[in-house]
Design goal:
The chain is of the alpha/beta class. It is about 45% helix and about 10% strand.
């Protein structure tokens, strides 16, 4: 195991990380996008992005795109490279505000978090479409880990914290249990060659209807490219 530092809330840090990783000339068979914050007070990243959208979504969008060429080189016909992105059931109530992705008009921690998680699902589906169109040996899937007992809940109200403390053993998954679907997506032979799936409890299931809107997927992708400063190479792909 080797550790390389990467701050997903910093576009500069992400670019530096990718540089250091590529300098090692290692193959990349599995990329798990799992960083995140939840229900944080209104705050901006160093690049000026609303923190949920900047860290949860844009950081992973940039990281994945900068590593795509390595992933494509690493995948083969019989062993695809795999991209697994961790979303949340919260995406079902999320709304994507393309005219206000930074939640400047009216900030709601719940709304901003849900939007970032919906964006991750839309991103995964669009990414898989592009990978398939290019004939790449790479798959992209999105995972709902369930309700997991982690430090993500540190910004909830004290009432929720007390309720969580009292019921965690009954209703919450342990971190190990929460990781099981991500691990399944990363290594299971059942998922070989399968992309564009939404997984929960190691099973393929249906995401929110809006996540299948291909026009919304395209528009979010194009806007995301502008925001992180990379060229939109998907323009030639329908």
């Amino acid at each position: 195991v080797e550790f390389l530092y990467c701050d997903l809330a910093s576009m500069k840090s992400i670019r530096q990380f990718v540089q250091r990783f590529k300098a090692k000339n290692c193959p990349l068979h599995v990329l798990v996008n799992n960083a995140g914050v939840m229900l944080v007070p209104e705050k901006k990243t160093e690049d000026g992005f609303e923190e949920h959208f900047g860290l949860n979504y844009l950081g992973h969008f940039l990281l994945t795109n900068l590593l795509l060429d390595t992933l494509k080189q690493s995948g083969t016909h019989s062993h695809n490279a795999r991209i697994i992105t961790v979303s949340s059931a919260t995406h079902y109530v999320g709304k994507l505000h393309l005219n206000d992705l930074q939640s400047r008009c009216s900030y709601s921690p719940h709304g901003a978090y849900a939007q970032s998680k919906l964006a991750l699902v839309l991103f995964t589906y669009r990414l898989q479409h592009l990978l398939t169109a290019n004939g790449s040996h790479v798959t992209a899937n999105v995972v709902d880990p369930g309700v997991v007992n982690t430090e993500l809940y540190k910004h909830v109200s004290w009432v929720v914290k007390v309720a969580k403390w009292m019921t965690a053993w009954l209703f919450f998954k342990t971190p190990e249990e929460g990781a099981s679907t991500t691990i399944f997506a990363a290594v299971s032979p059942e998922m070989e060659g399968a992309g564009g799936c939404y997984l929960y409890n190691e099973e393929r299931t249906k995401s929110a209807d809006v996540a299948y809107d291909e026009e919304l997927q395209r528009r979010l992708w194009t806007e995301s490219c502008k925001m992180v400063g990379i060229s939109d190479k998907s323009g030639r792909v329908p």
